[in-house]
Amino acid sequence: MLLRVIIKNFLSFDDEVQFDMFPNMKRTQLGSHIYMELCDVPLLKQAAIYGSNGAGKSNLVKALEFLRAFALDKDFSKNIELGKFFYLLKKDATQDPISLSIEFEYQKKFFFYEIELSEKFVAKEGLYESFPRENRLEMIYERKKHNVELAQKADDAVMDATKRMLAKNPLSSLLSLNAEFPIVSDPRCKFATKWFKGQLEIIGVHSFLPTLIDLLRRNKPMLEFVRKLVYHLEVGVNDMNLQETDFDSWAQQHISIAKNLPGDIDKVKTLSLNANATPVLSINVEDGVRKVYQLMFDNIGKGGFIGKLDTSMQSDGTLRALTLLPALYYACKQGKTVIVDEINCCLSPTMVKGIVEYFAKSEGTNGQLIFTTHDNQLLDERDILRSDEIWFVDKREGASVIYSYNDFKEHHTISPLRGYNEGRYGAIRFVNLLEKHANQ
Prior knowledge:
Blueprint: E1 2-8, E2 17-20, E3 34-35, E4 43-44, E5 46-50, H1 57-72, E6 98-106, E7 109-117, E8 122-131, E9 136-144, E10 147-150, H2 156-168, H3 174-180, H4 187-198, E11 200-203, H5 212-218, H6 220-230, E12 237-246, H7 247-253, H8 255-258, E13 270-275, E14 278-286, E15 289-300, E16 306-310, H9 316-333, E17 337-340, H10 349-361, E18 368-372, E19 390-396, E20 399-404, H11 416-421, H12 433-438
Parallel strand pairs: 5-18, 5-19, 11-17, 17-18
Antiparallel strand pairs: 1-2, 1-6, 3-4, 6-7, 7-8, 8-9, 9-10, 12-15, 13-14, 14-15, 15-16, 19-20
């Protein structure tokens, strides 16, 4: 579960801002949207983040992606243009470090992870066990450049080796290095790594799961979950199935595709083929037999005729929705925190409402759904969104700020949609290209 994220000097965020999933306990609306028993701290199950183009909504998502990648990949900072991630719209932009922090819960333990990153080294990295009710942190490790302090003392040889390793990898996280070369013996360190690796799912605007076919093939409950919901998307699909074919038979029928496969295909155990970022098929070896797997859709035609079409023949909206359904499964059934940037991308307002409503009203959910969107119709869906589940991102003096609708203390009878469209909460731009053109 995500508790909060703190951002400073990162992309469009200059001054420190905080996004969190803490409910306003005075609000009685949709009490089922507050998790009370999953962990010791009340947490919201979802959040919708609004803002105009260029306000910085996606940069909040990028901050989470950055934190996760830095925590898990020791080479992440080496392989990016790190200087582009600072807030650059000021003098001496890189003089102060990028500062990112995240607080999360995993298996009823709370953690706080923070980094301060300059262009050449990690100024600070700390992992702590958090005790939110007591407003207290207990250090697991704290690192400044290549100097490390551990809660569980290690012998001098281990500490010397750690310093040398960090000196050689000044832009790597100790958390990622610890996964390869166990340095921190404290088991809480592995707990934190498992959350970043397995409990935080991020879906970008243009992302499509490249291994979707394999994902559904290996996870039968997820496949059935997606099959159940795909019919109700109202995109003309009656059902969806995973088709299995012997490789040799498939190759004879798809000569043009088969001839472009790698020459050493016999040595490859698993291969996913994509076209236009869409998973077309998956080739796998099972029990010594090479097989081809494809997603096939029962599309409804004239007079109720059912035709079978593969993913390459589906609309962008259908494929975008297909990306979100596994993420919805993670949030509903597996307790994961799912972040979706521009959930409305390629989707109609009714489809967005249907997806969010399913998560909001499904009983037994144990995860979180957090999404950015331009679909302001949801603002007035009082049976879907609580007031403290609505957030805004705006630009002030060239820098992004983020704040909750709950900060406005409005009466529950006031329409958030009307207020937003009137500009009462900021985070909206009124564009008049005709007037600007006439004045030039």
